[in-house]
Amino acid sequence: MLKRLQVGLLLCLVSQEFLAAQIVPSPVTSGHLSNSALVDDAQLISPSHGWVLSGGRLLSTATNGAQWADITPPSLTPATSIDGVFFLDESHAWVVLHASSDLLANSIYTAATGDGGQTWTTSAVAGGDQDVSHMYGAGAHIFFIDRTNGWLFLRRATSSAGSRGWLYSSTDGGQNWRLLPEPPAYGPVHFTSRTVGWLAGGPNNVLLYASRDGGLTWTEERVTPPAGTHSVREVFELPVFDDLNSGTLAVTFSVMPAAHPPFPPRDLVAVYTTTDSGATWSLQHSYRRNTLADSQIVDSKVIDVFSVNGVLVVGPDKEKNIAPLPSLFAGASMLSVGRLSFVDANNGWLVLSDHRNCSIPGCQTTTALLSTVDGGRTFITALYGAATYRGLPMPSRWEISAETAPSVSMQETTVTPGPGYVAHVNPGAQGLDSCSDMENILGGLEQDAASYESMGFYLGGLTATLPKVSCFVPYPPSQDIWLKEMSCIGYFFEPIWDDLQAPCSGNSQLISTNVSIAAAEGTASADEAANALASRGFGGMGAGGTSIAYLDIEVYNPPAGDTTCSPAVRAFVNSWIAEMHKDGYQAGVYANPVNINNDMSPGAIANVPDDIWGALANKINNANMPPVPAGWWINSQRTHQYNIAQPIANVSPVYLFDYDFVNGAVLTYANNYSLCQTACTNPCNPSCPDYAPGDPLCNPTPPSCDCYECEGESGPECCCASCGLLC
């Protein structure tokens, strides 16, 4: 049976609410700053000038971090956040701002300065456009090639399996913005001229596109993988151009080393160059690197930065410098580089984060802005922030209680359910969901189990399994152990079924515009979802309980006078819910609140969802999801996805999660206790019977040089030549 999480006391997210937090200059600086947040983002513009985003405040320096000035636009209020920053030079900059509330739609605008932040001029972008303001995903990229020509990319509120947005252009320095045709994916953009631009994005950054007409149209770019590379996922960064024709592109291919399961997977980085403005790309070389590294192309070389064995490793492959960690991070074991910004081979910044023991109350999160002037041989700490995190203790065991099955029309089930499910009564919860490969980060999720109780994962569906999406789907029986381990850790589940999408959504797998066919497609899709639930042990009513799956309908915007898109969605969703009920399961929907209100609510369809999961990224942690009326779905039937594509503590920043306020249906195993006693064999898991925190598996010592694979050799000795470290 399913579980309902009643809203009560809220858990505080690492990035949002702290008992105590302070940003102060390091002992080597002369300025004094005080704030209530950590170092969130930063960029070095020149060897002396740069900016930092911290707790919603924009800070700048003209002395490489020795002194700082608060240059936050004065119109910024507590209800407004900075979603994007771009500096063209030391004087000219633009920021993307948005204000939101429980009752009002997002108001989105830009602010521009020509004097280094002393004065700002604001311009509205989409404040009066209901489609944009209600569907905005609280994320933006902004870029200018000169003082007048720029582009603004606003993210739609989608699931982590989706990636769409609105692209605007300006020819007057951001005073006015013109909406362009919707690009095929959302992500950072970079233009080398008024016509030639690049876009890296999509789910998990697996897509690269080029535009030759100023962003009106986009063409997908492909590269040839290095010889012998297979069964991997490409991850693209934006190419960097030295001039209009010559550029460098780094592509990461994720590869898991079978010989070293306790350690992170190894990445294969392939470096390509072009001399024809990106028309063709030639492979120059490839190398393996630490998965937790961050990278940047500088002077046609890929600079990697990562932390291992108490040092920072900085530089191109086989040319790395070794720097000791600042004393601030003494004893830290889980460090990540959140932002890397070099202006040349010597001068650079990086944001280093330590989330130590952040699954227990009172733990501390530390971030620091580090600066180097010698290519990473030495660093100074320009700013740092230390925050006490308010967590909740991990439950000792699960409270098992019965729950009455929902009142739905019962017919003979078409699937064979697995074990039954039960309810777990809890006063409230924070949840996560992700399309990322969560099988590889189970250890980090274990450490976060006290802070997040619910995990949304992809059960399957045509869209979730597309090669360009490739969501993590725990297929039985091999990856099915992930579900059992996560359940033993203490997580509950919100299964997501990501299948056909609205005909006007711009996706590739679309619902038929013929409503009869759309209804049949919904029925078939529900049967597949029910079978997927049953195959993983999520039982239906026939097993003495009931389970739920959430149908993922990504955000869509029907055209004026629409007679096909909304009717098709209604037919599909209505039949999907009816068939799920017939198969013995409850049926929820994940969608934008505007789409829920218009096409999935009482009066729009006969079979309304049992629960709703609203994608409204307003960064407000509650169950309100306007324009859905507050009087609908009131009996613990709501989950609110209020922030998207964010890193979490104890997990590499390359894995992004969505934050959820959960007051709705989630799942757990009925025989959870016996399951964990028999199937849970991880000595690092406190819920496992053989829990042994001192086991080497729980505290692995990385190889001496952080290398797992060497050509023609084995063992740590080979690391000396390839990493430049002493073994």
Range of helix content: 10-25%
Q: Biggest sheet, open or closed, and with what strands and sense? A: 8 strands, mixed, barrel
How many strand elements? 42
Assign the CATH class of the domain at 412-679: Alpha Beta
Q: Taking Cα atoms only, what radius of gyration do you get, to the nearest Å?
A: 25 Å
Strand order of the largest sheet: 34-35-36-37-38-39-40-41
In CATH, what is the homologous superfamily of the domain at 412-679?
A: Glycosidases
Shape: globular
CATH architecture of the domain at 412-679: Alpha-Beta Barrel
3D structure, described in words:
The protein has a domain at 412-679: TIM Barrel. It has 8 helices and 42 strands. A hairpin with a 5-residue loop joins strand 28 (335-342) and strand 29. With 727 residues, it is mainly β. The longest helix has 21 residues, at 515-535.
In short:
The protein has 727 residues and is mostly beta strands.
Strands, helices and their partners?
Layout: E1 3-4, E2 20-25, E3 39-44, E4 50-54, E5 57-61, E6 69-70, E7 80-87, E8 93-99, E9 107-113, E10 121-124, H1 130-135, E11 136-144, E12 150-156, E13 165-170, E14 178-179, E15 189-191, E16 197-201, E17 207-211, E18 219-220, E19 234-236, E20 240-241, E21 247-255, E22 266-274, E23 282-290, E24 294-298, E25 301-308, E26 311-315, E27 321-324, E28 335-342, E29 348-356, E30 363-372, E31 380-389, E32 400-401, E33 423-424, E34 429-433, H2 442-447, E35 454-460, H3 480-489, E36 492-497, H4 515-535, E37 548-552, H5 565-582, E38 586-591, H6 593-599, E39 611-615, E40 638-646, E41 657-663, E42 665-666, H7 672-679, H8 719-723
Parallel strand pairs: 34-35, 35-36, 36-37, 37-38, 38-39, 39-40
Antiparallel strand pairs: 1-42, 2-31, 3-4, 4-5, 5-6, 7-8, 8-9, 9-10, 11-12, 12-13, 13-14, 15-16, 16-17, 17-18, 19-21, 20-21, 21-22, 22-23, 24-25, 25-26, 26-27, 28-29, 29-30, 30-31, 32-33, 34-41, 40-41
Helix pairs in contact: 3-7, 4-5
